[in-house]
């Protein structure tokens, strides 16, 4: 049995907290005491990554210069910021004392001690010379656990490190305003994992050996792939914390008080690049060749550039919203968490974010079908005031021109042409065109002739889909492939009902796990935009016959793209089938194909089971590839188009 | 008949005479005298333009040297050609380029109204939807480094997509909708392809054609130019000459409306807070308004009533909306002043009706506010000095205005025809 496996077993068996020696009952500081509660059992909770742990240049007690990351090595790290002359009882001495206790406890747990390293970095380089740090560290030299004491060569080298770790330090002044020599600071100890990501930050209230040791063990258990234990009401989570086909925080169970989030931060994503061009060479089973327009042939450079743009938050007015923030890879390239999309500064969008999967095949784009080409489509969300909020085409182009990372990328992909009205659309469209997904269980059964690819219920569902339920009338299935759409727009009554039916009156609003609030409708109206009118295709054609007609969506990967309908008003596929079973909402423009279906509950379930077989086999690959994409965030070196160019205004 | 009546009639007669003689530099119905009940409209139907149009060589107009202006900066990737300019002109006057086939570019940038709109303070888009700002003139737009009152655009080629797509302007639902329409209308068959080396209508070619037409609307060689740059002593009256000295001196106008050694664009391509925007946003609107609803007939309307039927004030913070920098609140672009006598009403919101009102506004130091530009100061101008400044501003009208307007009248007006496949139905 490999060592790490053994360690995992051992960690599970040993009681979470080793009994504290009697000497530890002595209080370390006024702000410190026994934990008022039992530390949660190691491995029973998750420590989501908070941010990447910054690197920096430091000086060892030996006087040698080193990089922080090199000193972290391949171990877990507890990093404290101290200065040797600190006399705040709730400050550095406390941090050092707690780390000393951890050190002495772990003497008895050498398996854990071998995985951990303590590091203390001085934030007073003027006084704390390497020699001072060496003498300071000598007090803690004994024992199995390594403890490294560091300083820096100057305030200048130190400042970026302190900033990156959020450690603020100010000179202390006395009542006369004279500098006392002391340094005002907030106690901070940081837990860093082997991937150099910060996993926990401890202030005085949480700086307790029990908690810290259990957190260290939790990270070690996580490395063993030991799933989060009792108390988790979520699905199985992989060790990277991402389920590639579902929102991290998909809110199931949110209505109970013991709900715990499954959200994980972006830095926790572990991506794996995929060969996105593959689908263009050979489409997966169930889909025709990807249509590519002659004036924008797909190339690797364009796809790579488009992917970079797709995940770049700087492409919005206030640098917060990328395409991927509404078309979230692990949420079916749509958003499972919102019925209606939300743009910059929380502005409401009228409709549900549609999936980008297989958008290459769509002849009409947007729910109202107002656009025809992905190349042009991108400008709508870029410029809409309630989406990415860019004030003009120039604002987008000039921003991209100003960001150094894009230097030469457009020119290389577009034969010398820089970012422009056409090239930005062409790059984004090229990436989107590669998000093709099929070869689903259904495809393997129906087109591939693999009898056992889907279950009996799904087979009955298919018979209903093409028969009694009449779904196939709009969600077409061809001889050799199926797009599950007719590229047309239909009035199912849902839009009509939203406009003409009784106003919605939410009585109870769930504001936190298990906590409902009665909200007065007037109050909601006083802060919101009110109901935004939506007449569907009519808005595009001005033809009254087109009122409330919306595009037939393709159904591939439909199990991943909840909530459903143009307004996201249905949370599950069952609700959708029940809606159609009832004949939609009758109205003067109702499409004659929508009529009561007389399906039994069993048949409804069969249809839902059928739709669940439409998930492509490469979803994990495409999501992992998306995770490998760089996320564009505003950086210091970016000339903020808006502020730095003041001379131009 | 009382004396003042007679004098008004006399003025009216002069105006009608001028209109009949073919001067096209004012709105057909520019509303002068509308406040008296004997006002008679001067509106004329579109058809009366027929026969009054005279095509001009627009590319030559752009490239020829005009006293007072530098050469037109033509982008390397979109040089003007006669065919491209003609296509752009056709697009500019095509009402089918709006969602419901009613609004062309020229309906807010009206040729005979200084390629702006003398009749509306705020532009009005499709189905009467209110636009927040005043239509700026297209004259000499080739020289602008920033477009729109808030300077949010930097290229004419890109700028056109904003009015085309704005819900309260031409209201096309998508880029694709505009391009589809252009592909479907038989009178555009082959036009783009001929101009753009085989390329049909697309985002770039539509922008390039419209930009090329607009770039030709260059207008200078005004009385001021002939006097100042041409050293023609009698080109400018005494009052206007005094006005120029005030403009560059005591009035300090030239601090933003730059006048160079060899030419004058009368702008600095920058944005300033004069206080007009601040006042509109921060000061209470009057409870009641006198509204002139017919010649000589006023009615009092309460703000409450107006709020009932209109669209609520949507707010306008100027450059801040682009930069998100609080210091940029209510900063708007310095307009060029060439042809300014033709482009009333004034300011980004069209709130000042005459040049005199504008000078009076600046004379009192604009509207002070926490982020007002320090260049705006009380000027202490006398009424005579104000008149002199206005006389100077009136001397900035280019000598080719009539030629450009006559050319515009010669342009085909694109209206929905039976042979157009209405793309939606």
Radius of gyration of chain B: 22 Å
Q: Give me the secondary-structure category of chain B.
A: mainly alpha
Task: Quote the distance from N terminus to C terminus of chain A.
Answer: 69 Å
Task: Name the shape of chain B in a single word.
Answer: globular
Order of strands across the main sheet of chain B: 1-4
Rg of chain A, alpha carbons: 29 Å
* Count of distinct strands of chain B: 4
Quaternary structure of the protein: heterodimer
**Structural class label of chain A:** alpha+beta
Helix content of chain B: 25-40%
Give the % helix of chain A.
25-40%
Largest interface: A-B, 35 and 42 residues
Model regions low in confidence, pLDDT < 50 over at least 5 residues of chain B = 1-25
Distance between the termini of chain B: 59 Å
Instruction: Give the total of beta strands of chain A.
Output: 14
Global mean pLDDT of chain B? 89
Strand and helix order of chain B: HHHHHHHHHHEHEEHHEHHH
Taken as a percent bin, the fraction of beta residues of chain A is 5-15%
Give the topology:
The complex is a heterodimer of chains A (about 650) and B (about 425).
Chain A: H1 3-13, E1 51-52, E2 57-60, E3 65-67, H2 68-72, E4 76-82, H3 92-106, H4 110-113, E5 116-122, H5 130-138, E6 146-151, H6 155-164, E7 169-173, E8 179-185, E9 189-192, E10 197-202, H7 209-223, H8 278-281, H9 300-310, H10 374-377, H11 379-383, H12 393-402, H13 409-413, H14 421-433, H15 441-446, H16 456-466, E11 489-490, H17 494-500, E12 508-512, E13 515-518, H18 521-527, H19 538-541, E14 550-551, H20 573-581, H21 601-611, H22 619-628, H23 641-644
Chain B: H1 3-20, H2 58-63, H3 82-92, H4 156-159, H5 161-165, H6 175-184, H7 191-195, H8 203-215, H9 223-228, H10 238-248, E1 271-272, H11 276-282, E2 288-294, E3 297-302, H12 303-309, H13 320-323, E4 332-333, H14 355-363, H15 383-393, H16 401-409
Antiparallel strand pairs in B: 1-4, 2-3
Helix pairs in contact in B: 3-8, 10-15, 14-15
